[in-house]
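Chapter summary example.
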Amino acid sequence: MDTARPAIGVIGIGNMGWPMAACLHRAGFTLHVHDARPAVAERFAAEHAGAHAADLAGLAAAAEVIVTILPTSAIVAQVAATLRPLLRAGQVVIDMTSGVPATTRTVAAALAEAGVAMIDAPVSGGVARARTGELAIMVGGEDDVVARVRPVLDGMGTVTRTGGLGSGQAMKALNNLVSAGGFLIGVEALLIGQRSGLDPAVMVDVLNASSGMNNSTQRKFRQFVLSRRFDSGFGLDLMVKDLSIALEIGRDTATPAPFAALCRELWSAAAVMLGNGRDHTELARFAEQLAATELAER
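The structure predicted for these 298 residues follows.
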């Protein structure tokens, strides 16, 4: 393998996969891209000279490193089962899906029988930081495998080693648990404040200058809630999935987590009430419905 610039196959050219692949293209990697929607992969290849749209067989033959960025671990497992007879010893799979650690370890064990290594490397930062190559990347796996593909990871963001295989996905789920809790309590505080006469926009400014500051006060409330845009690019259904993974890890470790369970249930209720295809920042609409109040700047 050319450890500096290996040929890369990217599977999953969605909201995150597209800008992440674009960063790798700008970094000078040869790309072979695949998506369940062939037209999307073909459009990416057309817009990024030198990238190649391929079926899985062509991608497996051409790529030294294969990156998966897919909605769920179940889909990753299906893709890996299709890929396995097409792969050759020495290739590396980087699963950047926000997935289930136990499923990832099962997939990795099957690939190892074919001499193919696997690491997990989920990301945080959303579409905006995916475009700029400034994602936070949480990496689990063997040190030597991570070292071999480090230039690929560095092309998309900043790497933090979290431990063995699956630890990156565990960290990502727990990170989103903290993020989801901060968003929910922040929206409720804004609603209480507005109903008591405070301007939500002023509240956000005060929170950002005070101990109540968090990622939602800094990057979400003005940008997506008060603006009424609700277009962060990260789905409400995916947040519920990540919260469910975090709770599963809690159960597996026999860790009492009553607030985490309540947080997950509220986000799940919002997904049911609001319906499919919603951005995760639309949780605010759910809280607004409960309070019979719509947040608005004065």
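To summarize the output: The mean pLDDT is 96.
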